[in-house]
């Protein structure tokens, strides 16, 4: 499905940006408007999208709900990856080469040779593969829910990375982004949408720094990996957490040592991935908007013993309230009325 979406994306924009006047026999005369051609392309695209929705509804009736939602979220992730890849190409298109900025990580961690630059990617892929293999031994519903959450959270994360990456362009610290190195930037607007090498790590992009998408992926998988060991012994859970933290530290060190990102890119990825995980863990709608807040209603307090600074608090219930609920004042309702 990933390859099909990439093929449709590239084919669509190839048709939209295709100029028939460049070929030997043109179907459009110079000066003739090509608006009908654009409308035709968009009509075909919308038709394919409607057909996709129809097939999705058809599969929903045949598939188990957890498997269906996992498939939809992963397909959404692939499509968001295509969009983010184009945004990364746009960032590279706008990027201007310059000397790397000062970074505390570069000062503390020496640069490693180019042949070891992919070590951080190997750590990322290895950790994800371990989680995938471990999830095969879980109940299908639990496994499907875990990877459905991964697709949803990662989709939002990489969209944020793609649309925010070109707002502030820093000089890339990687060797191929420094002055004097060959220029691998897209040559035209058309290539921004057609070149999808960043989906597979085959493109040498520059400028897509804040924040680190690879680090965000790793943090999200690490947070979701708690589902893998819920039924295990406490010692196993502790060992897994130690392994997880060690993996994250090694990944960050090798990422900085290869000069792929500045330290601030990785630190921002920690925060953004954790916040997105906390907000979209349960749904596409943020949790604080989807679920009501909880407040504790205290009915009675009594002083214990001679020490007036200590008191025993009797908590009767917890009420589910929404943020816009009008709070009752102390003058209108007393604790005795609550108790009765």
Automatic annotation (TrEMBL):
The chain crosses the membrane at residues 35-55, 67-87, 123-142, 206-225, 237-257, 264-284. It is a multi-pass membrane protein. The keyword Transmembrane helix applies. It is found in: Membrane. GO terms for biological process: ceramide biosynthetic process. Residues 1-18 form the signal peptide. The keyword Lipid metabolism applies. Residues 205-278 form the Sphingomyelin synthase-like domain. Keywords: Lipid metabolism, Membrane, Signal, Sphingolipid metabolism, Transferase, Transmembrane, Transmembrane helix. GO terms for cellular component: endoplasmic reticulum membrane; Golgi membrane; plasma membrane. One of its GO terms (molecular function) is sphingomyelin synthase activity. Belongs to the sphingomyelin synthase family. This is Sphingomyelin synthase-like domain-containing protein.
């Amino acid at each position: 499905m990933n390859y099909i979406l990439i093929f449709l994306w590239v084919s669509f924009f190839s048709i939209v940006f295709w100029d028939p006047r460049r070929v030997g026999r043109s179907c459009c005369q110079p000066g003739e408007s090509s608006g009908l051609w654009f409308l035709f392309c968009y009509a075909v695209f919308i038709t394919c999208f409607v057909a996709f929705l129809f097939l999705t509804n058809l599969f929903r009736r045949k598939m188990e709900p957890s498997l269906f939602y996992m498939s939809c979220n992963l397909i959404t992730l692939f499509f968001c990856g295509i969009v983010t890849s184009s945004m990364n190409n746009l960032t590279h298109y706008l990027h201007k080469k310059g000397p790397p900025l000062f970074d505390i990580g570069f000062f503390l961690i020496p640069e490693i040779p180019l042949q070891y630059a992919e070590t951080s990617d190997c750590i990322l892929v290895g950790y994800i593969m371990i989680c995938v293999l471990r999830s095969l031994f879980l109940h299908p519903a639990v496994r499907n829910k875990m990877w459905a959450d991964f697709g949803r959270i990662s989709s939002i994360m990489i969209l944020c990375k793609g649309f925010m990456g070109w707002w502030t362009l820093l000089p890339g610290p990687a060797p191929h982004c420094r002055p004097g190195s060959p220029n691998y930037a897209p040559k035209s607007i058309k290539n921004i949408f057609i070149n999808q090498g960043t989906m597979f790590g085959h493109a040498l992009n520059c400028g897509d720094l804040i924040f680190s998408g690879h680090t965000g992926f790793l943090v999200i998988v690490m947070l979701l990996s708690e589902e893998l060991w819920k039924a295990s012994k406490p010692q196993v859970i502790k060992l897994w957490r130690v392994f997880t933290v060690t993996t994250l530290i090694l990944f960050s060190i090798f990422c900085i040592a290869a000069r792929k990102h500045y330290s601030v890119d990785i630190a921002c990825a920690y925060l953004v991935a954790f916040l997105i995980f906390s907000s979209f863990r349960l749904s596409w709608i943020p949790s604080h908007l989807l679920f009501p807040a909880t407040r504790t209603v205290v009915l009675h307090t009594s002083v214990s013993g001679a020490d007036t600074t200590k008191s025993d608090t009797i908590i009767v219930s917890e009420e589910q309230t929404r943020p816009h609920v009008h709070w009752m004042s102390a003058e209108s309702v007393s604790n005795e009325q609550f108790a009765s």
